[in-house]
Amino acid sequence: MMKDYILRVIGVVLLVASLTSCENFLSKEPDDRTQINDITSAKELAVSAYVDYSYVPLFELRCDNVGDMSSNLGAFNNYTPAMYFFEEVVPSTYQDSPQGFWRSTFAAVAAANQVLFDLDRIGATGPEADAVRGEVLLARAYNMYMLAQTFTVPYDPATAGNELGLPYPTEPEEELIKEYERGTLQETYDLIVKDFEEGFAKVTDDYAAPKFHFNRQAAAAFGTRLYRTLQNWDRVLELGQRTMGADPAMYVRKINVPGTPYKGTIQEMQQIWGMETEACNFLLNVAVSNWSRMMIGYWSRFAVRWPETAKGLFWNEYFLGDAGKSGSPIRFAYPFYGAGKYAYAPKIQEHFQVTNQSTGVGFVNTMTVLLTGDEVAFNMAEAHVMKGNYAAAIDLMQIIVNHFVANPNTPDAEVTEEKIMSFFEDQVGQMLPDPVNGIEINSFNPAFETTPQQESYLRAILDLKRRVFIHDGMRWMDNRQYRMDIVHNVFSNADSKEEFIVLRGTDPRYAYQLPSNVLPYLEKNPGYDKPLERLSK
Asked: Contact 444/368 with Cβ under 8 angstroms?
């Protein structure tokens, strides 16, 4: 296997919370790092194993929820257009860039490795030390999983042994440049599973703010995501049961309950989505990100379009009926706003961190909900379908519908097999117009076999899930899991016409290209030299 190399960015990351330039790092000694001498200092350093940049803009700008509204609207930065157009991205380590996310995530992995190394060095044993080990192993597994969702092709067990994986550091680096193998995708996921299972066996709930750490519930929730990717449906159900217990409804977001902040002001709605007090929120993170500003306003060239996406996804005919009618009981209960050309749901909370009081400049931080009961319910429903347990899948779908549609207390809101099959049965195995642009695509092409009944149920689950997780980055992972063709429009201001680019479900550009600063040391992801398919209506 060919040897590759990766630049090390370890020493300085363990000294400061924010990322600095490569030049600043290279001026420091590689062993200029935080020293762990006891369990307390290990716990303090463990917080650095959580990424401080967000994956959400990377996933949303690539998925099929967003569109090009007009070049008269600005793109928030010079790398956003390339992300939307499935191109190689210009170098940038700023927030919301692929290179920034790569660097921030590997820095978090480095912190986890340092904690594990020093716990062994000082001979730390016992339940408290094991709990710290469990947390950082889970953090390392999660971080590497999210990197794989960004920089590698979708997982297919038949081909993963031949696809490019990622470097998977497991030890602190003692030199500035260290030899690594990129390895295969299967090897990457095998290491993720190893870290997950070892961490899951040790993790506890003993934190002052448990929802900002890998607690038992968050760990099991992540496990359902991981094993869903690997198509291990039994493990998805086992971990889902560990997450949700006997009453899954307790951990599904309740947005249609009168008198709650979900029915309040925009500010109240934005705040409650990421609150610790919400039982559905298992793992929270505050990331440096402009995502809240990229969705709305002057800089929202690539966002959810108004009215095309709003009508195509939220006010349309779906398997429960027509959500476009005035007063429809099955419309999505969370408000969806349109202003000019863009549309948004007020669910992203921004926190501005002032770094210079005299000038008022600083960083935009965004509260991100990393793991939720809503996702676990969907993952379990999929697993039940793949196991042939259709009644159990309907029960979970009903719980979600009961909490997300405007009026669940009507026959229209009842989830039944008859509704699912009558709506989707004719779509099985077909090329169909995508709901926003009307371009015929293959929106269901998973790497696993399904029967017509399973495909119908899975289409229903994915359609409902798309509505629930708008703006959250989840749709990209579903695009990958089901190898969906993705249509992005390209708007021409010159003649007010548009054409369309299509990313087919098996296109290698489902993997972001590796950052340019590591390409001298790592093999490139293939496919970026080929022109994308372009269509017009």
From this structure: no
Q: Tokens 């925009």: give the residue.
A: 266
Task: Please give the Cα distance from 451 to 124 (Å, whole number).
Answer: 52
Supply the DSSP symbol for 285.
E
Residue type, 278: E
Alpha carbon distance 140, 166 (integer Å): 13
Q: How many CB atoms lie within 10 A of CB 197?
A: 15
Angstrom distance (rounded) from CA 403 to CA 252: 7
- First-to-last CA distance in the chain? 46
Could you report the per-residue pLDDT of 85-130, keeping only the tens digit for each? 999 987 877 788 999 999 999 999 999 999 999 999 999 999 999 9
From residue 117, how far is each of 40, 44, 169 by CA, in Å? 15, 15, 12
- DSSP letter at 470 equals T
Nearest-10 crossing angle of helices 216-229, 474-481: 30
DSSP letter at 361 equals E
The phi and psi torsions of 414 (rounded to 5 degrees) equal -80, 125
CB 83 within 8 A of CB 90: no
DSSP characters for 290-307? -HHHHSSSTTBSEE-BTT
DSSP 8-class letter at 311: I
58: closest CA among 151, 156, 188, 168?
Answer: 151
The alpha carbons of the chain give a radius of gyration, in whole angstroms, of 23
**How many whole angstroms from its chain centre is CA 25?**
29
Please state, in angstroms and rounded to a whole number, the distance separating the CA atoms of residues 422 and 408: 21
- Angstrom distance (rounded) from CA 401 to CA 97: 35
Tokens representing 193 are 């599973």
Element (H, E) at 492: strand 486-492
336 versus 61: the higher-pLDDT residue is: 61
The alpha carbon dihedral of 25, 57, 43, 115 has a sign of: negative
Angle at 72 between CA 68 and CA 77, to 5 degrees: 70
pLDDT tens-place string over residues 278-320: 999 999 999 888 877 777 766 778 888 888 888 888 889 999 9
Contact assessment for residue 397 and residue 460, using Cβ atoms and an 8 Å cutoff? yes
Nearest Cα residue to 463 out of 295, 314, 263, 361: 314
- Residue 480: both structure tokens together: 């990958």
Integer CA distances (angstroms), 219 to 59, 144, 204, 206, 210, in order: 22, 15, 10, 14, 12
Tokens of 209: 């703010």
Looking at the DSSP assignment, which residues form a beta bridge with residue 321?
318
Residue 321 CA to residue 318 CA, distance in Å, equals 5
Q: 533 — alpha (psi -120 to 50), left (phi > 0) or beta?
A: beta
